[in-house]
Design a protein that fits this description.
The protein is mostly helical and about 190 residues long. Helix content is about 80%, strand content about 0%. Helix 1 packs antiparallel against helix 2, helix 1 runs parallel beside helix 3 and helix 3 runs parallel beside helix 5. It is globular and about 65 Å long.
Amino acid sequence: MFKLFRDGKVWTIPNAMSFFRLLLVPVIIWVYLVKKDTTLTIVLLGISALTDVLDGRIARRFHMVSDLGKALDPLADKLTQACIVLCLAITHPLLWILLGICVVREPCMAILGYITIKKTNKVPSARWYGKVSTVVLYTTALAILVFPNMPQWISTSLVVLSIICVSSALLLYTKYYVGVWKEVEKEDAARK
């Protein structure tokens, strides 16, 4: 855990944006489930998505990329995704399957990431398939929020697409991490 702070880049604008997104999670749940304000929920998700896009760009543009940011950003993504899927699952039962996959995926990803950090001494960056799965999941959630009366076959198709993307991302990340581990083992064997 302390390796996340080794580069000295803790209090950066991108990390503050990720912390902000983490703080938005309970607010989004409260606004949607208690206040029952779909419009404000959409606005808060939009703010979360905007800060998600901006934090990465700012980090790369102004050389503020940090190990802490590499860990915080996906954590904020996953918690936001889980919270909105949980909220929407109340009215769209198929989303319980997606939530179940997310609940299984995240501990798996945490374990894979931890092992990779231990083996490589580096925090791995997000891969394109993880980003695609995030975009598809957010698009599905926003479509259901913005168009609550859309035909059932469209919402079902979007949820199934999300399930496929999230599941595929887990499989591709697993393949990637195992490949990194094998590469490290080859390098270690070559040095001996």
